[in-house]
Design brief:
7 helices, single chain, mainly alpha
Length: 249
């Protein structure tokens, strides 16, 4: 006798978790947590810390993406003056407004102060090594630029650091070239001045030699004239002496 097959198990459908519904209170808790963690400056990966903190402190099962998109949506509505809650006291809505002001300030200001803790209540310090800080800054810059692009159409593109470096190098090269050309020009002028000075000295020496020759020639002529005059005087004296002797005789 063939045994009966056991009845097949009926698979129960998986329960799909209900979608989290944000309220004024949960928005306030989300905004305060986002301000404390500050993913706007530290980069998109910090939204995971926001999600973890919401689960740990308030019991909200919200993904990092949902938290980020909710904050961005609230920020856009706040800037368009469309953030209105039908429930909640005036004090609670005022607190939401203060949180939104801080959020917008963190998004817009490049030099906004950065919270020194990863999570709202975790107390884990931010890594202080140079490589970690550099990586955090790069990720924060990328995330901030993306947020600004989504919220503002007229935001100018971020500066091209490579282009700035090339411009700086080109400027330094131009300065170096100008300095070399200037030094070369000064050296050429100095060489020409020394050459002209030597030529002037040679010309002066030549002129001095010519003057010396002229003076010596003049002295020689004067000597010859004196010698001629002396000889003439002697001849005249001899003639006179002979004439006197002849008269006596």
């Amino acid at each position: 006798m063939v045994g009966k097959k056991p009845p097949a198990k009926v698979l129960e459908p998986k329960k799909v978790p209900a979608k989290f519904r944000f309220t004024l209170e949960s928005d306030r808790n989300l905004l305060t947590t986002a301000i404390n963690v500050n993913p706007f400056q530290l980069g998109r990966q910090k939204w995971n810390d926001v999600s973890a903190s919401l689960l740990q402190v308030f019991g909200y099962q919200v993904s990092a993406r949902t938290a980020r998109e909710r904050v961005e949506n609230l920020s856009n509505k706040y800037k368009q003056e469309q953030l209105i809650y039908k429930t909640g006291t005036e004090e609670e809505q005022s607190e939401i407004g203060k949180c939104m002001e801080e959020i917008v300030k963190l998004i817009e200001e490049e030099a906004a102060p950065v919270n020194i803790f990863h999570g709202a209540d975790s107390g884990d310090p931010v890594p202080t090594s140079k490589s970690d800080r550099k990586a955090e800054k790069i990720l924060a810059d990328i995330d901030r630029d993306e947020v600004l692009k989504r919220n503002y159409e007229d935001v100018p593109p971020p500066p091209n650091k490579n282009r700035a470096k090339r411009s700086k190098l080109r400027y330094e090269e131009d300065l170096l070239t100008k300095k070399v050309n200037h030094d070369l020009e000064i050296e050429q002028k100095r060489f020409r001045l020394e050459e002209e000075t030597k030529r002037a000295e040679i010309a002066n020496d030549t002129k001095r030699l010519e003057l010396e020759l002229i003076r010596e020639k003049r002295l020689q002529q004067e000597t010859e004239q004196r010698q001629l005059m002396f000889e003439t005087f002697q001849q005249t004296l001899k003639v006179l002496t002979d004439a006197l002797q002849n008269n006596k005789n």
